[in-house]
User: Which sequence fits this backbone?
């Protein structure tokens, strides 16, 4: 799981530094490896942590994931509103 998270950090940093649309697309498609490396271990952790209450555990897990995604989306939207979403040329 750590390898997946580190892969995500590397790919996100690569997107921030990408200079062409092709590079961004390749990095975006490579994000699929993050899901492959992290999804199963995360589900195993939820299963182990919930005892016999798997339905409730996964409900809480997905609710927290959704709230975090919503907060991140709002924060990113605020950042783009503040800087106009334009990339400055070097």
Assistant:
């Amino acid at each position: 799981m750590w390898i997946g998270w580190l892969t995500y950090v590397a790919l996100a940093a690569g997107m921030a530094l990408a200079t062409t649309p092709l590079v961004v697309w390749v990095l975006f498609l490579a994000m699929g490896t993050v899901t492959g490396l992290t999804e199963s271990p995360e589900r195993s952790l939820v299963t182990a942590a919930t005892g016999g209450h798997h339905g409730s555990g996964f409900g809480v897990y997905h609710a927290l994931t959704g709230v975090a995604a919503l907060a991140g989306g709002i924060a990113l939207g605020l950042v783009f509103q503040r800087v106009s979403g334009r990339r400055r040329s070097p």
In short: The chain has a mean pLDDT of 89. The CA atoms of residues 1 and 39 lie 8 Å apart. The two ends are 36 Å apart (CA to CA). The helical segments are 2-17, 21-49, 54-83.
